[in-house]
Specification:
homotrimer, mainly beta, Porin, disordered N terminus
Chain lengths: 351, 351, 351
Amino acid sequence: CLLTGSALAQSSVTVQGLVDLSVGSVKMSGDKASTAAITPGGMTTSWVGFKGVEDLGGGLKAEFALTAFLRPDTGESGRFGGDTMFSRDANIALAGSFGRVSLGRDLAPSFLPVVIFNPYGDSFDVSPLVLHWYVPSGGFAARTWANSAAGDSGWSNEVIYSTPNFDGFSSNMHYQFGEKAGDTGTRNIGLNALYFNGPFALGAFYQKVQVSNPTGGSAIVDATAAPVSFASINNQTAYFVGASYDLTAAKLYATYTSSKNDTAAGKQMDDKIYSLGAKIPAGGGDILLAYANTKRNGSLTANTELKRDTMSAGYDYNLSKRTDIYGVLMSDKISTADRATSVIAGIRHRF
Amino acid sequence: CLLTGSALAQSSVTVQGLVDLSVGSVKMSGDKASTAAITPGGMTTSWVGFKGVEDLGGGLKAEFALTAFLRPDTGESGRFGGDTMFSRDANIALAGSFGRVSLGRDLAPSFLPVVIFNPYGDSFDVSPLVLHWYVPSGGFAARTWANSAAGDSGWSNEVIYSTPNFDGFSSNMHYQFGEKAGDTGTRNIGLNALYFNGPFALGAFYQKVQVSNPTGGSAIVDATAAPVSFASINNQTAYFVGASYDLTAAKLYATYTSSKNDTAAGKQMDDKIYSLGAKIPAGGGDILLAYANTKRNGSLTANTELKRDTMSAGYDYNLSKRTDIYGVLMSDKISTADRATSVIAGIRHRF
Amino acid sequence: CLLTGSALAQSSVTVQGLVDLSVGSVKMSGDKASTAAITPGGMTTSWVGFKGVEDLGGGLKAEFALTAFLRPDTGESGRFGGDTMFSRDANIALAGSFGRVSLGRDLAPSFLPVVIFNPYGDSFDVSPLVLHWYVPSGGFAARTWANSAAGDSGWSNEVIYSTPNFDGFSSNMHYQFGEKAGDTGTRNIGLNALYFNGPFALGAFYQKVQVSNPTGGSAIVDATAAPVSFASINNQTAYFVGASYDLTAAKLYATYTSSKNDTAAGKQMDDKIYSLGAKIPAGGGDILLAYANTKRNGSLTANTELKRDTMSAGYDYNLSKRTDIYGVLMSDKISTADRATSVIAGIRHRF
């Protein structure tokens, strides 16, 4: 009776999420000292939310997702102060034999290729590639390194068309409205492509970013005023190619990313990132090795080449299909600062 | 085992919500240009939350609702910046043969009559009546038209007594505490009445508003300083009558709303809104036609009559009981600005 | 099919919460006038959230909790403006025969002893002990009495080790990282112990607080500038002993709490709180009587002893195991202000 009623009422929506917390000593290159800390999301950014699928008949489905990032070390919502509540997912889609069309806040074109082609996946704490591409270094008012990606790992006001899977090949086409009155030329566009064939996988993205996220009107790269400001960048074109091959004894990863940035005043900055990685099964878990290297050039940085390299070595052990524990050692070096080392150990639980 | 335990633990609460997103070109009268945009809540404001009912025996039930509005285009919570998290519902009630008493944040007296007696229901984007009554036009710092209703579509710090249903007739009596120390005279009060008899329905509300929402201490109509400010209004008395008749070939709607506003300095402003509507079944969906007209007079507007009329023509098609798609064309005209046209197409999914 | 899939997907997480709302006239000693109000959380602070347990085999379990406080009178999230979203719980734990280790935001050492050893439990509105220990009096900019506890009822960035239960005895050891770069000496530490033996129970805590909550960088006691400021306090050591005995005709409670505060400039303030309580079964519910008395001394208050006593008399009646209604009369007296009386009646529903 009550049980049945409730189960039926619940049948269209599931509560899902992930809690990841680690303990460690964190110091990025450029930081003055190490910080002993509980860090949220060592391996995956923690989140919680609601998802549902409705079968509309004739092969057509309606799908929605409302999911929120959170920082379980303090209980704060979002990935950072000023993030929106449902910045991970706030979208609805129609899916069928034609593919899938979604509206709302959803992934940026760069997200899937970047997280699929490195052994640390979507770790915004210890994946060298993800750190270089998405995560600024240093506190907000004292950046030591601005991330390369413009316009966030998720896009608001977005339409995505996803193709069906053609023998392992699929592609997602992304469009974000700029939502400026009288201006339809300012917007974000991009696409990615993924190909899986047995042990081999290939991925690529291209994106052109002019609009900030999760809400508009901010700098697309980094609004920090000092000492490193790229707030004047108003246009970024980026592309990426990545591949992985599973030799069974080890899964190997390689990627190359390029971003070209322009300011209204005609200055520019080019970032080139390459990354290598390996995932090696051992002792019931995986040894995870990853390296990323960025070279930053252009008139915006006074034509002085800036370099950064970061490497992580870790071990991830599954307690179950849903719960794993891990330990990671990371070394980070910016050309203008000393090498710094972090070490974290944590637990990740999916529900 | 786990399943049973979980299902039992879940039996007292359900997760419910609605995601509505549309794509369109939006321009209200007074806007300088059209904006191409993803708009959240084209037909219904998106929301998600928790509801539960407990049978206490003897015909008595405890009911609660905690539901949050959200904007899935960006993932932001609330209807606007500064809205409270659970501004849609945050209340608990006891219900029985005597009727129902609820405490907390809940509907304003005006809400049910306004959304029941127009063919676009609770659309805060394209229902002419809802737009005129509840939604200010123009950006926050540049209002072109202030909405007529004072004190929001939901009231905080509220007690509602709802009568049982007497042969189709029911009434809700609302009281919102002003929560000012030493002052019990400043509060919101109101009531509404609804009558359903076969194809015919009748509704009315009366409300007297002195307290802002969702939190107190703000202007009750519109806090915008310029160019249109009604921040000095501290008292509004409003009433409404509406009717609908279902001819099967079409359901017809008509309403009349009057609001009288006073300022501490003795100025006043009177709004009179009438609206007409029709819902016409066609092709498995409904053609929706609606019109609203407001006349604004009084010393607060320098005794110059301001006028606004808005009309919407749309089509709503059900993909299932829970999911529909729609397209709407809207025309809006303020007497001091040019006529403007919007067009949106979207999808709404209930869960 | 859909039902089964959903029920299975749901099996690992439950939605839980509590809504408590009351109507009353509230005046604390030092307030200029009574306020007629809907108050959230008369008996328990309202909350909603997600909890889950996973059996990892071998007696090992993974547990998580993400729960949010809220104020259902207005729909606001958190206990106060600036609170974090999941300030009640945002943690993950591994539990087994060794005990339990948790990471994240969780209880402070003082919480369980304080709420277990008074008849009003975790009421932040009418439990005299909880009010004196945790809740400041007067509005934010016009404090009339600063609470005694430093560092909140929950701690962020925390590791807790909980012992197994040894014949009724258990203990929790708490450590909160200060998360200051290059400084591991600034942190919160504490522990509590609980002992249950038939009708008799005993509890104690010790804690040393240097870090503010729910986020760091604020004053640990009260940041209000005027007229009562303890923002310069940077170190508090506190301890507590409490006992209860259930005579069947009545359950009796007694506690003693001491806090010693230091400022960087060498000033200090000592609070001593004793409380007494009784829970007397009557008429199917419980009569609840409670009293707390605080004496405040030290150079920070110019060596003038400040005193406060508060008493509450109420009745709590269970409509079901999950829903109760209550009425409470409270009298509050600060030595520098007149005695003030509050009366509230409310309903509490667990789900």
